[in-house]
Amino acid sequence: MNHKLPHLYLRNPSGSIHKFNKSRAITDTKLDDKDPEAYRVHKQKLHASFVQLKQDRETRLQQKTLVPENLAIVEIRFLIPFSDGATFKTRTRFLNEFGLSPVMQKDFNRTVLFAIVDDVKFKTFDRLLNQYIESDNRTPPQGSRYAIMTTLYDVKYNTADDIRNNCTDDLVFEFINNNAYVDAIYETQRKVLDEYLDTLAVFGDIDSFTIDPYDKMVQIKGASREVVIEIAKNFDILAQAHSLRAATVKPDKFNTAQLTWGLNIRRNGNPATVIGILDNGIRPIDPIREVVLDGLDITTTGNALSAAHQHGTVVASLAAVGERYFTGENELIADAQVYSIKILENMDGYIDVIKVVDAIRNVHRTRGIRLFNLSVCTQSKAYNESPSLFAYLLDKLAYEEDILIFIAAGNMHYDDLVAMQEEVHDLHIYPNHFYNPSISSDIHSCEFTNICTPAESMNHITVGALADNYRPETATDLSHDKDLPAYYSRKNHYDFKQKINGGKLSPNHGNKNLFKPDLVMPGGDLLNDDGAMQVLGFGDTGTDYYTFDAGTSLATPLALNLAAQLINLYPNISLQSVKALMINSADSFSHTYLEDGVDKRKDMLAKRVYRRSFEDLNKGEKTNITKQVLSAEDIHRNIAGHGKPDREKLLYSSEGEVSLLIEDVIPTDHHKVVLVNIPEYLLGSANSKCLNIQTTLCFKINPAWGNHVDYNPLHISFNFANSVIKDSPDDLAAIIADRDHDFYKDSWTDEIRTLQRKKDIEGLSLSEKAKLASLKLKVKNQVLGVKTTVDSWSEDFFPLVNKPLSNRQQMSIILAKKDIQKIGNQLVIALRCAVKENLDHDLQAWIQRTPEHAFSLAIRVTDESKIKDRPKLYEELQAVNTLEVVNNNITDLDQDLEADA
Fold it and tell me: Which residue ranges does the record assign to the Peptidase S8/S53 domain (predicted)?
């Protein structure tokens, strides 16, 4: 019998060293050299843009009637990242030479809003731009003072139309980032804006306004078009307006086959986890009455336990019992109680994001609720769009409070789904509609399948939907198979193959770990009721006891229920450990359903570039095409994340599959090592695989507003390594952190020794320095490699100034007998940590007061040795490691062990 055993904390000795070499032996990103004639069109475009900029600036000054001081805001779109990491040192030069201070950075910092903080210096910008525009088209700009202008894609003035963004009624205005260069004018305009909004509210020209606690946005309700235009005309400290109206849900369809619910969900006798349901209210109908607590209503209805639509009530029922809801049992004991946080009355209403965040903080502090469900989304994300204000506020809240929110990825619009099935087009056929950036139809573009705000949140868990509806007798409708992502489920909006400002992102500036959703759960299929889930109705008419529904709204509470079960078992683990264990337990599935579409895109691009089909290309040409096309594996990850959590793996270890958990901290600019001792019995294996070790790292971030690349300012990553010394973890950390460590000298090649002698005596050229560093790194990786060499780290940090970072990473390693022998039965898990530089002033204090950073590492170790009568891995790991049973409530553990004895 393979018993349900508790997970184990790994308490082995660890070591650390205050060292992190962030340099890299590769050149900085720069623009490709072009024929001088190629700049002609670029010059013409910039000339027209700058002429328009001057006109727009003059017009804006004439429009103003409310503010005494002006702050000119210019938007510049770059062809390279705006940073000091590039050859042109744009961050320093644009401030020091041109008087331009960045106040908002988007499009992975290729689009920047600048405040003109020195008009005299800005004239230098004007002069250099004119020199570039008027330069001889036969003379290359490289090496000239105006060469920096070749980094620009476009320039424009930030006009009132840009700020108001066609929004009216209920909306939010983003504030630009304040800094020392704009502070005086910023504060003046803020004071005037507050007074003006107060006056509008008194006279009934707006219903109300609220400013968020972090001073990043002002939320206005009931603003007419004229009011919005007037605000946008006057206040330079506003970046852009956004609407936060909830996406509509599909029409109700009721099942008349049953005339009663026939279901009772009972409260657990033990204190159960409480889940906050952020939705349109929970109606305590008979099946769930016992598990519904009271609630908090931030709408005008004043009753959190009333609901005009069954959406929140259905979500609550699934959060309480999870997948067991679909077993057909009449009596179910709940895994969690539910607390209603009513954020909407009608499902297409406006979401008051400030009140939502305040409500979460309030019920967490007063009721101790840590888990929340948000199955209500707003607008979808454009490709590579920056994190929204809603996501920022939720991420900031999670960093400050002990909470975890499960957020729906969002559904495609129901009317669009209907229209797509009525019009025959290859793009509308599953799964082509998810990702096909080269084509579009009159009613669909693959951008319409991107996740909805705030599903891009990094500190929380985003959930997509599989087409499964827990009804084995029915078939799917739009999706190909129940085990595949549902047709309507939305995908990751980051696509590093897409052009930004007319140029492609460097491979160094992308990040394979930045994808959403994190997980998927069954959500049913559309449009046929046979493919949908049968969920609770209100029973108002005597026939509507059940309804058919589908969506990520249903998948999300099913995932959250698993988290509740995990916390019920292990009440003291951190919420980042919950996230890490859930992701580490997830099983992905084949991406073959996407391969045909990828092949078509390769063929289409090959014909466009080489005028031949992909199969007729030579090896080099195929490689060039493949680099430009997102792989089936990448697309699948963008749709399905890490896959569906396996309940048994999530909740329990077993005799042959053990989950180890590390909850620890790592200081900034440190390397840290944790040792995992491998049981001796595995050396008796004749199988090529002995152990499969899968590891997931999760940590919370303190987000940076208005800086896309630095939104996550914290880098933590990990790797597997050989334990080259056994007696001192600190020394081992020092060896791993330093490629120049004396430990590696015994493994140096003759070429390294020759270059090192030359360096010591007469010095090296730049190319020789790069070569020496590369050779030393190669030796280091060979020495530290568990196999032939060290694999890439879970996340690459370089270049730190231009690399967007993830706070959720996963790696696996399979150990064969020879690997275990090489490492002397001791595997090293190495971690490293760094913080971004040049952060805005509001994060500088955080850096000073936060010298170390908490993380959770979930490690699943599986015995694949196939040794006859093999020992139990669970016991053998305990024998050779310092392990501690995670405090748990596994009630059948003692009985299982007694039965086994």
Answer: 273-592
